[in-house]
Design brief:
Keywords: Cell membrane, Membrane, Transmembrane, Transmembrane helix, Transport
Number of helices: 10
Subcellular location: Cell inner membrane; Membrane
Number of domains: 1
Protein name: Transport permease protein
InterPro entries: ABC-2_transport_permease (IPR052522), ABC2_TM (IPR013525), ABC2_TM_bact-type (IPR047817), ABC_2_transport (IPR000412)
Domain ABC transmembrane type-2: 17-245
Helix content: over 70%
Largest sheet: 2 strands, antiparallel
Strand order of the largest sheet: 1-2
Length: 250
């Protein structure tokens, strides 16, 4: 596993060297979301009996973690492909499973660091409860793993930065922003409630929020089943791409 450890270290070091941009900036963005939305809606919105600022924090934590997990693996791969340095990763005898685990675990670690930073940065504003820490950790880890793997798919598929930006802007951003971060889906019309149920990111955020308050829009067991299924499918698709060498070795 020396190749795996070396590649993981390289990927962690890559984002940590610019942590002001990769960790601190997303935390600041989440804090701005919280200050603006809670200031405008705090007196008017209460969800599941939870004050709106407290309700908002878990959603912002999860949204920030997911978006940054995706950004880490996708940006690393596309940058390596564009500069040609990906060949130095492919030449050593590193299996495609080690390759997959190193990139995804680094992405997950960045997501965890950003999520922790958002919690520490917003806890002074509204302290959410923590009813079930194990649920919180489970959904945060699974969500980061899924988005890290999806970032690899995007990085493998894209040939240039604007293709990757299109993937992020037209798929990842809508999935994360329209997943119940800022609202309960029960506040939506019936049609849009049903649409939201086809969004796997909704289950990640809803299950994560359940760990804080013990209440959610759907049963946490349902959320866990959907997220676990998504984890298996996305991981299998990513491993299949790596095994085939699609746009990397061929």
């Amino acid at each position: 596993m020396l190749g795996f450890r070396t590649l993981l270290y390289k990927e962690v070091l890559r984002f940590w060297k610019v942590s002001f941009q990769t960790v601190a900036a997303p935390v600041l963005t989440a804090m701005l979301y919280l200050m603006i939305f809670s200031h405008v809606l705090e007196a008017h919105v209460q969800v599941h009996g939870v004050p709106y600022p407290a309700f908002l924090i878990p959603g912002l934590v999860m949204m920030s973690a997911l978006q940054n997990a995706f950004a880490n693996s996708s940006s690393s791969l596309i940058q390596s492909k564009v500069t040609g340095s990906v060949v130095f990763v492919l030449l050593p005898p590193i299996s495609y499973v080690e390759f997959f685990l190193a990139y995804v675990m680094a992405a997950m670690l960045r997501g965890l660091m950003v999520g922790t930073g958002v919690v520490l940065g917003t806890v002074w504003f509204a302290m959410p409860d923590l009813q079930a820490p194990l649920w919180v950790l489970t959904f945060l880890v699974l969500g980061g793993f899924i988005m890290g793997a999806l970032g690899m798919v995007a990085g493998i598929w894209a040939d240039k930065f604007d293709q990757l930006a299109g993937f992020q802007n037209f798929l990842i951003m809508p999935l994360t922003m329209l997943s119940g971060v800022f609202y309960s889906i029960h506040s939506l019309p019936e049609f849009w409630q049903q649409v939201s149920r086809f969004n796997p990111v909704f289950y990640m955020i809803d299950g994560f929020r359940f760990g804080f308050f013990g209440v959610s829009d759907v049963a946490p067991e349902t959320s866990l089943a959907v997220v676990t299924t998504s984890f298996v499918l996305v991981s299998a698709a990513t491993l299949a791409l790596l095994r085939s060498g699609y746009k990397l070795r061929s």
